[in-house]
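Exercise: predict the fold of this chain.
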Amino acid sequence: MQRGLFITLEGLDGSGKTTQIRRLSGWLEKHLPASTPQQSIVMTRQPGGTATGDRIRALLLDSRSTGLAPLAEMALMFADRAQAIAEVIQPALDAGKIVLCDRFTDSTEAYQGGGRQLGSEIVLGFHRLLCGNLQPDLTLLLLPSLESSLERARRRNQRVAEQAGQDESRFESEKDAFFSRVWDKYREIAQREPDRVVCIEGNLSIDEVHEQIVEAVAERLVLSTQQL
């Protein structure tokens, strides 16, 4: 059986990843061949996506988790990722499914490597060691302006806290200089790996972003089919 397709969405919180991954899943369900098996699309997220990962996510994102050392933060991210690969991602790919993942190692390189200033080398070394160097077939990087992303993320977290009592605002409490380093690192990753990373920049509408995503995914699906 041919290996499935691994697609990741990346970007700052507030960049629109959650909305776009849902829209992409719906588009795929409508446009995949009728012969495609049921439940061929798997959606997941990081941190989270497994029972263990959800517990790690709660610890990492809760604003009460103060004093967490950057290396400890990175190690927790990779513990979550290793579990997700073993439990969700690799089995789905082995079964020929399409995996849509909200964040992957690019996020760790951007947030911990860039934002926390740990550098890329240690992050990529952990990825090779703990994740078997598993690489997405396609990464969709959403890069609206830094200001609009932060405004949306902070507004969303406040709404979630009020409505659901969930606190996931630890990163959003960082200063703008932190997010500027994250944004710059994302750009660096995109420039380093242009064959994998499709960068969608600017303060575009939801529909405009979706159109660019669909174009990139459709092209990759054609390439995947030609390789059969």
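Check your answer against the key: The helical segments are 17-31, 51-61, 70-94, 105-115, 120-130, 146-164, 176-192, 206-226.
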